């Protein structure tokens, strides 16, 4: 089956969307004294039944032999739209980090889930994308938080500074109402990898050494992907 893409910017205001994006850090562990992250962090209540998430949201009849793919865009630069796609595949599910060109062609840069293909971005790249929306603080927060699950943090990252930026973004969109520093700590700890190394390659641009990442040229031979990433950031200042 092929994806039938639906633009869903409205999902940015749906609590279940955010819980799905951060399902790993939200999952209580045996060490946690609380039973549910929703109450502990004061997550906003949802209007939807989690078991019927896609069915309740569906407003468009999907053609035969297609499945609904809900694309949540957060910004556009150099004629590329950036966001995530929730793929409601029958008997399966995945979230991909996509960039979409002017012809509506989706380029999947990575995948969040059981068959993960991460990391997708560097934090400085996400911050550069946030600058494209100028002074719109809420839009900046959406960019940071939607793309955050696609980032792994190496040992050289300035995590204290990033932590403050994540806390600020969560407060801006009223994502949670309690214990934001603790929530940011859980997210950042979940996404740390001291063995991660990003480096610049003359042919492929910024790439990494992670065996599961599509931005590792030793593991991904799709030249279109690397070209698309370079086009996305063309003229956009990144470190």
Q: Any overview of this molecule?
A:
The mean pLDDT is 89. It is built from nine helices and seven strands. Strand 3 and strand 4 form a beta hairpin. Helix 5 (123-131) packs antiparallel against helix 6 (137-147), helix 6 packs across helix 7 (159-172) and helix 7 (159-172) crosses helix 8 (180-190). The strands form two sheets. The chain has a five-stranded mixed sheet with strand order 1-2-3-4-5. A two-stranded antiparallel sheet has the order 6-7. The protein is an alpha+beta fold.
Shape: globular
Low-confidence stretches: none
Class from secondary-structure proportions: alpha+beta
Major sheet characteristics = 5 strands, mixed
What is the residue-mean pLDDT, rounded to a whole number? 89
Compute the number of helices.
9
Query: What is the helix/strand order?
Result: EHHHHEEEEHHHHEEH
Beginning-to-end CA distance, first to last residue: 40 Å
Order of adjacent strands in the largest pleated sheet: 1-2-3-4-5
Which strand-content bin applies to the residues? 15-25%
- Helix residue percentage: 25-40%
Task: Annotate the secondary structure layout.
Blueprint: E1 2-7, H1 15-21, H2 23-26, H3 37-40, H4 53-57, E2 66-77, E3 80-87, E4 94-100, E5 106-112, H5 123-131, H6 137-147, H7 159-172, H8 180-190, E6 198-201, E7 205-208, H9 223-232
Parallel strand pairs: 1-2
Antiparallel strand pairs: 2-3, 3-4, 4-5, 6-7
Helix pairs in contact: 5-6, 6-7, 7-8
């Amino acid at each position: 089956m092929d994806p039938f893409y639906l633009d869903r910017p409205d999902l940015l205001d749906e609590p279940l969307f955010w819980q799905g994006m951060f399902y790993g850090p939200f999952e209580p562990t045996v060490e946690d004294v609380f039973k549910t992250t929703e109450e502990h962090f004061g997550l906003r209540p949802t209007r939807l039944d989690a078991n019927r998430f896609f069915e309740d949201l569906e407003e468009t009849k999907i053609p035969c032999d297609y499945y609904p793919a809900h694309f949540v865009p957060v910004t556009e630069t150099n004629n590329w739209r950036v966001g995530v796609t929730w793929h409601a595949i029958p008997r399966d599910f995945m979230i991909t980090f996509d960039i979409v060109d002017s012809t509506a062609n989706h380029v999947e840069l990575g995948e969040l889930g059981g068959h993960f293909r991460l990391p997708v971005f560097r934090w400085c790249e996400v911050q550069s994308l946030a600058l494209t929306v100028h002074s719109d603080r809420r839009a900046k927060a959406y960019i940071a938080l939607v793309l955050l699950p696609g980032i792994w943090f190496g040992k050289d990252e300035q995590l204290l500074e990033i932590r403050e930026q994540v806390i600020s973004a969560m407060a801006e969109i009223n994502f949670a109402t309690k214990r934001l520093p603790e929530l940011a700590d859980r997210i950042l700890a979940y996404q740390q990898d001291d063995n991660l190394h990003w480096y610049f390659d003359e042919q492929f641009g910024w790439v990494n050494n992670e065996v599961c990442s599509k931005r590792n040229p030793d593991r991904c031979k799709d030249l279109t992907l690397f070209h698309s990433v370079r086009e996305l950031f063309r003229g956009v200042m990144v470190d």
